[in-house]
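Before going further, learn to read the protein records used in this course. The integers have meaning only within a learned vocabulary of local backbone shapes. The record below shows the convention in full.
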Amino acid sequence: MGPISSEISLSIPIVGEEEKSALREVIESGWLSMGAKVQAFEDAFAAHHGQKSAVAVNSCTAALHLILRAFDIGEGDEVLVPSVTFVATVNAVLYVGATPVFVDIEDIEHPLISPEDAAAKCSPKTKAAIVMHYGGYIADFERWREFSDAHGIRLIEDAAHAPGVPGVGQLSDASAFSFFANKNMSTAEGGMVFSPDEDVLSTIRRLRGHGMTADTLVRHRGHAHSYDVTMLGYNYRLDELRAAVGLVQLHHLTDWNRKRKMLAQLYREKLSSEIPSIRVPFDNGHPTSAHLMPVLLPVNCRRETVMDGLRQSGIQSSIHYPPVHLFSFYRGLYPDVVLPKSEEFCRRELSLPLHPALDEADVERVVACLRTALNHKGRA
């Protein structure tokens, strides 16, 4: 294949002069903490998703934590959670003193939390289900809405991978988004909350700022002389700098998602024709933001060796995700959890590079290098 001309990263943030200009504007304004830019970002992100309002926070983890707090979920309660997710989805349940109940995926080609397994694990203690759009591939929220209503529980949407997808945030009791550095749009760190219940959003607004009734900007503008603290809150606020970057990133989100989906489709075509032993989860045409490019390696593959081969060719890859219930901390808490489908999926899953800076030649190179790694180094 010749010498490596450049490395292909798994994911990179797309930032440039627009973001620099937005940051400069905030710095020159002299107001760096939560203020007008945060409000503008909340309004714009809500409008982009057909929502009336939103609450910005400093991470998706904070968003999930505050949603659970706002729903008064705590000690003695159970929350249905996926194990094929980033650990923060489950950690948030422990933050409020509740018990996570791990639910298996539908199957290895649809690694979304299974309604059937969730139904089998519901109990009188179940108060909520957290449903994650794995890799940006959208879960069936009409089905989950029916499920949640039938069981009398809250439906929480982990939309960390799915900003900008039509319908996201419309049917859940609350949804949480991420703007971490590797997401489809980024503020480096940051998150957002939607809920159709304005009382829930009002509670989250106070919880994110120490439970205060009036923030610094409100007092600065003369709308309040002092404040009260009405609940135990947190410092989960988003700052003006990140909000300004978020406004710029949001402007490009639709185009970036379109580019991601085009690249994902190209991967599917190339993999199907050149490495038919590789399976790609989800059906072609499944609604998605194409946040991740997951593939399933053949059963007789040594994944680590394949990843090493890709790395030697200048291509970064990763695993999304090691199952949460098998981490040492969670094994210690819940040693008897067994999720056969999740475990099989996570043994075989490999994430290939996917971000808007890639082009067709990059995809072709990744697929060619993956084929070489499989043929020469990946067989058991």
Residues 64 and 276 are 39 Å apart (CA to CA). The chain has a mean pLDDT of 95.
